[in-house]
Amino acid sequence: MSVIDKSTSRDTALEEAFGACVAELYAQAAHSEVCAALHRALELRSFLAVAEEQVVRVRDRVHDAMSSDRDLGELSAEDLCLDAQWLEAALAGRDGYIGALDDLLRTMPAPDQRPRHPVQFDQPKVTATAPPAPAARRAGAVRARRP
């Protein structure tokens, strides 16, 4: 399943910020030039979808291992310890993507202030040339020491 089809915990915020459903936002990004903020937001959303899927997988694995109908002989403290480490890593990734996406949505310009087309600069480029290299010392020349 594609990340486009997966829901995330920030889909509503994205839809409110850009005024379209997530599927439409991906379609806009694929078929036209859109603002950089939308590209970044969709990239972060894709990463978030994967991170949230990882959290769910580990959570479900732990729930399955701890199920009341499981044989206690199958319970492994080592496996649960590894799952705890995986869950910690998955949650850290999820939290990072949520923070980055929330920051982007909070700091991007309002919809009516966003340019419709990318900004192009018509200013001439400044070029500079490096000064000539100093002349090489003559072979055999020794610099005198000063007292």
Can I get a quick summary?
This protein has 147 residues and is mostly helical. The chain has four helices and no strands.
Description:
The chain is built from four helices and no strands. Helix 3 runs antiparallel to helix 4. The mean pLDDT is 83. The protein is mainly alpha-helical and 147 residues long. It is flat and about 80 Å long. It is 54% helix and 0% strand.
* Biggest pleated sheet: none
Question: How many helices?
Answer: 4
Radius of gyration: 28 Å
Query: Would you report the number of β strands?
Result: 0
Question: Percent helix among the residues?
Answer: 40-55%
Kindly report the oligomeric state of this protein. Answer: single chain
Low-confidence stretches: none
Query: Whole-Å distance between the termini?
Result: 79 Å
Outline: flat
Strand content: under 5%
User: Helix/strand/pairing class, anyone?
Assistant: mainly alpha
State the order of secondary-structure elements, H for helix, E for strand.
HHHH
Question: Layout of SSEs?
Answer:
Blueprint: H1 11-18, H2 22-31, H3 36-65, H4 77-107
Helix pairs in contact: 3-4
Can you give keywords for this protein?
147 residues; 4 helices; 54% helix
